[in-house]
């Protein structure tokens, strides 16, 4: 061995400054508010979304979270365009990261939810949406981006431990199914240990 692997020297491939990910494209939204306690960021929730459902590489997720979804662009959008929801970050199919809400503010992704008996997960969670669908495999680029993001989030907000990274289905069982059977939790957890 001539040298140690790069990750030992540069363990965090992403950078967070003032609760913003420098590696993400920043998009503003009004779909956010203040956390009750910004010091209590202690859960990471993984979701999926695709707009229209099961179609990828469209601009509509961005429009939706920014409150600018055109109801005339697709019949489904007439149903959802007035919903006021968001997530902290979206990871597109090609691995591109978009951030909508600074991590110390509250994004509106979890809805009615509970983790280990504590309700209103949005108060203390960071929400990350993978562009995808429950039964369609995620891309390698998405796993790579999610691992890097999770790593820097766990470093920056150390109350987010491995046991406190969950799927939306875990905190809203019976109501939500994402990120779905397509999400390979074993691959993700192994990746976190190896990075
Ligand atoms: Zn979700």
Strand order of the largest sheet: 3-7-6-11-5-12
What is the number of beta strands? 12
The CATH homologous superfamily is called Peptidoglycan recognition protein-like
Helix content: 10-25%
Rg calculated over all Cα atoms: 16 Å
CATH topology category name: Lysozyme-like
SSE class:
alpha/beta
By CATH, the architecture is named 3-Layer(aba) Sandwich
- Counting DSSP H or I runs of 4 or more residues, the number of helices is 6
Folded structure, characterized:
The chain is of the alpha/beta class and 195 residues long. It has a single domain (21-29, 41-194), classed as Peptidoglycan recognition protein-like (Lysozyme-like, 3-Layer(aba) Sandwich), CATH 3.40.80. It has helices at residues 6-9, 60-65, 75-80, 140-156, 168-171, 185-194; strands at 16-17, 20-21, 25-26, 32-34, 43-49, 89-91, 97-99, 105-107, 114-115, 118-119, 125-131, 165-167. The strands form 4 sheets. A 6-stranded mixed β-sheet has the order 3-7-6-11-5-12. Strands 1-2 form a two-stranded antiparallel ribbon. It is globular, with a radius of gyration of 16 Å. The model is unreliable at 1-6 (pLDDT under 50). The protein binds zinc ion. Zinc ion binds at residues 47, 168, 176, 178.
Q: What features would you highlight for this structure?
A:
about 25% helix, zinc, binds zinc ion, metal-binding, globular, cell wall biogenesis/degradation, Lysozyme-like, about 200 residues, EC 3.5.1.28, disordered N terminus, 12 strands, alpha/beta, two-stranded antiparallel sheet
């Amino acid at each position: 061995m001539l040298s140690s692997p790069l990750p030992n020297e540069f363990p965090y491939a992403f950078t967070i400054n003032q609760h913003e990910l420098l590696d993400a494209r920043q998009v503003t939204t009004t779909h956010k508010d203040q956390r009750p306690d910004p010091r209590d960021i202690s859960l990471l929730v993984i979701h999926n979304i695709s707009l229209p459902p099961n179609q990828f590489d469209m601009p509509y997720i961005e429009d939706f979270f920014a409150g600018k979804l055109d109801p005339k662009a697709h019949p489904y959008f007439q149903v959802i365009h007035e919903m006021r929801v968001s997530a902290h970050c979206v990871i597109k199919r090609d691995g591109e990261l978009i951030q909508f809400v600074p991590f110390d503010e509250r994004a509106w992704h979890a809805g009615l939810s509970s983790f280990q008996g504590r309700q209103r997960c949005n108060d203390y969670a960071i929400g990350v949406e993978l562009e995808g669908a429950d039964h369609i495999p995620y891309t390698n680029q998405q796993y790579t981006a999610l691992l890097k993001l999770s790593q820097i989030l766990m470093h920056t907000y150390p109350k987010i431990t491995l046991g406190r990274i969950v799927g939306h289905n875990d905190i809203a069982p019976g109501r939500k199914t994402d990120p779905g059977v397509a999400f390979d939790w074993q691959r993700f957890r192994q990746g976190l240990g190896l990075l």
